[in-house]
Amino acid sequence: MLIQCLRAISLRRFVETELLPGPGFNLITGDNGSGKTSLLEAQHLMAHARSFRGRVRDGLIRQGDPALQVYLQWRAGSGQSHRAGLRHAGGDWEAKLDGAAVAHQGELCKALAIITFEPGSHALIDGSSETRRRYLDWGLFHVEPSFLPLWRRHARALKQRNALLRQGRPDAQLDAWEHELAQAGEALNAHREDYMARLQPHFQRLIDEVLPAAGAAHLVLQPGWKQQELALADALLLSRERDLALGHTSVGPHRADLRLELSDLPGRDGLSRGQTKLAALALLLAQASQLAQQTGDWPVLQLDDLASELDRHHQCRLLASLATSGAQVFITGTEPPPGLDGMDVPMAMFHVEHGQVSPRGS
Predict the structure, then answer these.
(1) Which domain holds residue 213?
(2) What is the pLDDT of residue 361?
(3) Number of domains forming the structure of the chain
């Protein structure tokens, strides 16, 4: 997919701004705090229903303004043009997609595929298990049509079981919701395992490119219960007494995690900061590559503050690889990253200053 126009109103320091990116590389420069990252945030918000820097109400809306407005126009891999608009007040939101009102932000997320590598991406390796579950489920959301209804079914059953646990009700109603939770949970776990298998070769290839010292790399799904010993229904039954005391469900896919096994490097807790960033980058690019293979359409890639995240050697390897993919890429920095030196690729250049985005000659 190719973003053709981004327009934002009341976005952090911007009163109103517009970006008309090109189809290849798009380099956005400016001083620290000028608003470069905010442009990527706005696009990420449309595609993920959240900012990668926290909640919308925590500074994404320009101070003193009631709401943020973002408009995107893009062309899908099929050649069809689309447009979407989002008004977000930090809690309440309204959106339209191709002129029709959007009931759930998931409709926007389904239409837009954007993957962002930014200074907080290391959390994909050393952060909470929730971050890694979100990563897996975003990928499934875009390649498996049956995933979202199943995810919602599981979430509803989990919510109902937790409510009954808090009420201390070990009755027939709890039995019924445990049955529903077990069925949905087993199916959800099967989807995740299948996705992991499809992701594995892409991840190994990317690890070989960006972190060859890691050796053989394996992605392992920890399902959230002792799956090799118990079916989920049995695990829920055995944990019931403990869960009644806790007031919530302690086993199941909502506690799943993704584990990285690297044959020539220690586990994630033993990786250096640089190695952690590169492993996270490999995961994100593997997801983009797998999505492109399955759908025939590369997602938009955003590389925020690239020069501070990767050294010149790794910048060169990454950018050379992306140049052959045909993906639309957004790169930000206080100045052009050294990795772009000498690269003969289509590139649109922009500069952010005094709340305005200006095109620059290449």
Answers:
(1) 121-296
(2) 65
(3) 2
